[in-house]
């Protein structure tokens, strides 16, 4: 087991992404007191859960996911609602995960699939294929090999955790886990949870980074690069893909933190303070909450500066004057 090494190559692109991500993490951490922003963690956690489940064909909207998490009644399939509850329970215990423990992996699979599968928390005993919609991407290794493959993967991670950069190690794990497909259900959700767990142990700020939402935006490329790695017999392409997506989403996270910067114009900060994340507002809604009567003054001093700073976005950006226009806090 000690000689096992997942095949991949460190390319110039990978090194460039590692440098870029590390630099962005440093800049965010330097200006942000994470402990004072629990709401950002919760909002981004909801995004992570919604996107990770949506990749697996869960049809609940982000609003419905938020309502389930907040204990509200949601009309939807019982299975999909349970998936949200389970994922939230798993992500809420993210800081408890030892990402280098195989027993922790099984325990959290039990949390992620509670009430959903009979063999929750146990490796599969049957043969499985990996599907993108109705298309079989590849057949997973035979079930009898799964325990040994997982022991080897975790043995390698433990051996190199101080030598291989966490950004690279987490991406290698993600791909190898998807390839092995160790459980009968929940493999994609667990791969993404564990990826986040590895990075969160390296830098706690990753508890605020909804990597899953970035994967969901580029889902076709996600599956295509996994398939290309299967054909190539190594994970380099997937590492590059994951690092590029992490690099992109850190720009969005920077905007979120900048939105709470005390040096913003007072009017913009007031506007942001009355808005909840991912809730659409009309101009009238916002003016009422701010106790404003002048529509022109509201647009000039509050709305337009916030839009220009990318702190809020329009739901119909190509028709800024639409009567159906809504504004959402980024």
Description of the structure:
The chain is mostly helical. It folds into 2 domains: 247 residues, Orthogonal Bundle (Fic-like fold); 64 residues, Arc Repressor Mutant, subunit A (Orthogonal Bundle), CATH 1.10.10. 58% of the residues lie in helices and 5% in strands. It has 14 helices and 4 strands. A two-stranded antiparallel ribbon has the order 1-2. Strands 3-4 form a two-stranded antiparallel sheet. α7 runs antiparallel to α8. The longest helix is centred in the last third of the chain and has 23 residues. It is globular, with a radius of gyration of 21 Å. It starts with 11 loop residues before the first helix and ends with a strand. The model has no long low-confidence stretch (mean pLDDT 91).
Quick take:
The protein has helices at residues 12-31, 38-55, 62-69, 78-92, 102-112, 146-160, 166-180, 187-202, 211-217, 219-232, 236-258, 266-273, 283-290, 295-308, and strands at residues 129-132, 135-139, 312-314, 327-329. With 330 residues, it is mostly helical. The strands form 2 sheets. A two-stranded antiparallel ribbon has the order 1-2. Strands 3-4 form a two-stranded antiparallel ribbon.
């Amino acid at each position: 087991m000690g000689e096992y090494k997942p095949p991949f190559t460190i390319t110039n692109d990978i090194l460039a992404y590692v440098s870029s991500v590390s630099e962005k993490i440093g800049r965010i951490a330097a200006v942000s007191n994470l402990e004072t922003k629990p709401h950002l963690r919760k909002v981004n956690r909801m995004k992570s859960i919604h996107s990770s489940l949506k990749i697996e064909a869960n049809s609940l909207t982000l609003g419905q996911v938020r309502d389930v998490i907040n204990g509200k009644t949601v009309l939807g399939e019982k299975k999909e609602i349970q998936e949200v509850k389970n994922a939230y329970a798993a992500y809420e215990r993210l800081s408890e995960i030892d990402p280098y423990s195989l027993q922790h992996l099984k325990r959290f699979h039990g949390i992620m699939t509670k009430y959903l599968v009979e063999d929750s928390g146990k490796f599969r005993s049957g043969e499985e294929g990996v599907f993108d919609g109705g298309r079989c991407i590849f057949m997973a290794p035979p079930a009898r090999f799964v325990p040994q493959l997982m022991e080897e993967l975790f043995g390698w991670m433990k051996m190199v955790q101080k030598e291989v950069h966490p950004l690279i190690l987490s991406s290698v794990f993600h791909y190898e886990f998807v390839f092995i497909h160790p459980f009968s259900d929940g493999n994609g959700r667990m791969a993404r949870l564990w990826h986040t767990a590895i990075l969160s142990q390296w830098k706690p700020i990753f508890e605020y980074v909804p990597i899953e939402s970035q994967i969901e935006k580029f889902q076709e490329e996600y599956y295509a690069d996994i398939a290309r790695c299967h054909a190539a017999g190594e994970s380099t392409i997937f590492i590059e893909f994951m690092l590029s997506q992490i690099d992109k989403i850190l720009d969005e996270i920077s905007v979120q933190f900048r939105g709470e910067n005390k040096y913003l114009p007072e009017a913009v900060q007031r506007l942001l303070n009355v808005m909840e994340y991912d809730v659409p507002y009309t101009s009238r809604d916002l003016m009422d909450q701010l106790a404003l009567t002048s529509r022109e003054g509201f647009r000039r001093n509050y709305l337009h500066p916030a839009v220009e700073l990318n702190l809020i976005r329009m739901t119909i950006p190509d028709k800024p004057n639409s009567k159906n226009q809504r504004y959402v806090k980024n």
